[in-house]
Write a structure and sequence with these properties.
With 282 residues, the protein is α/β, with parallel strands linked by helices. It has a single domain, classed as Vaccinia Virus protein VP39 (Rossmann fold, 3-Layer(aba) Sandwich). Helix content is 38%, strand content 20%. It is built from eleven helices and nine strands. Strands 1, 2, 3, 4, 5, 6, 7, 8 and 9 form a nine-stranded mixed sheet that branches. α5 crosses α8.
Length: 282
């Protein structure tokens, strides 16, 4: 049974300042994510695969799409180019300012846990970043429930998460496990708790790394139906020289086709750096 029909009116005003932790806010204000999904390697693969999956699962448009945590609008851009009506919400003002310049994209500052959007307002809601940084389970639940609230019955909610063992696999692929004396203990803590603390080895920012079954359960508890999961990068992000493959049109299509064929295979989900969990609103 869905938990989304709370009858709660949207009473909060438009958000005008960041509601995330200062350390996380600072990371994004420094522009660390501006080009990550477009320039090279695993980031570009993540972008291509996320776009490929969403284009296949979204209903025939044009749709009204809410892109929560959409940052600089890397996905909002192509969604608008595909003819959809896109409203992007993000807690970092500089990212919203940039996204608002994209043709066909409306962008506002806001919080995934308290959306200033009416009930049943959009055809699909994307959470392609917020759950990365909501360490508290209650905050993640609030963001998921809000996504369901604003999405019309029959619509889709798509949630991106970082896989629990992504840190270790990333360092293994770069031969960097011995780069810091506290590395082994830090990785063990992340894998035990899911909480990624950047002070341990200076990577990324404060984040939460999910197990595959954990995010599926969180989505179901929030009220999503027909939950299915897709390995975004699969094992391809670990391949040395993936940039070269992505630069070649023919090889790139072979890579993407191979990942499509294994994207829902349960035994492959955990090796992917990112997971896309998608469900239907009843």
């Amino acid at each position: 049974m869905s938990l989304r029909r709370t009858g709660r009116a949207v009473t909060m005003g438009r958000m005008t300042e960041s509601t995330i932790e200062p350390e996380i806010h600072g990371y994004y204000e420094r522009g660390g994510e501006r080009d990550r999904l477009a320039v090279s390697g695993p980031g570009r693969l993540e972008f291509l695969r996320t776009r490929d999956i969403l284009r296949r699962v979204l209903p025939t448009g044009p749709l009204s799409i809410l892109d929560v945590g959409g940052a600089y609008g890397v996905h909002a851009r192509w969604l608008a180019e595909d003819g959809h009506r896109v409203h992007l919400v993000d807690p970092v003002p500089s990212q919203v300012t940039h996204a608002a310049t994209l043709p066909g994209v409306h962008a506002t500052v806001g919080d995934a846990r308290r959306l200033d959007v009416p009930d049943d307002h959009v055809d699909a809601t994307l959470l392609l970043g917020p759950l990365y940084h909501l360490v508290d389970a209650g905050d993640r639940h609030a963001a998921l429930v809000e996504a369901l609230r604003v999405t019309r019955p029959g619509g889709l909610v798509a949630v991106a998460t970082i896989s629990r063992f992504a840190g270790r696999l990333d360092l293994l692929s770069r031969h960097a496990l011995g780069a810091h004396p506290g590395m082994a203990a830090a990785l063990a803590d992340v894998e035990r708790t899911g909480v990624h603390a950047p002070a341990a080895y200076g990577a990324f920012t404060t984040a939460y790394f999910h197990r595959c079954e954990e995010i599926a359960l969180e989505c179901a508890r929030a009220g999503l139906d027909e939950v299915r999961q897709y390995a975004i990068e699969g094992a391809a992000w670990l391949v040395s020289g993936i940039d070269t493959d992505l630069d070649d049109d023919n090889v790139r299509e072979l890579v993407l086709d191979g990942l499509r064929r294994t994207e829902t295979e349960p035994s492959m989900l955990g090796v992917s750096s990112h997971l896309l969990t998608i469900g239907t609103v009843d």
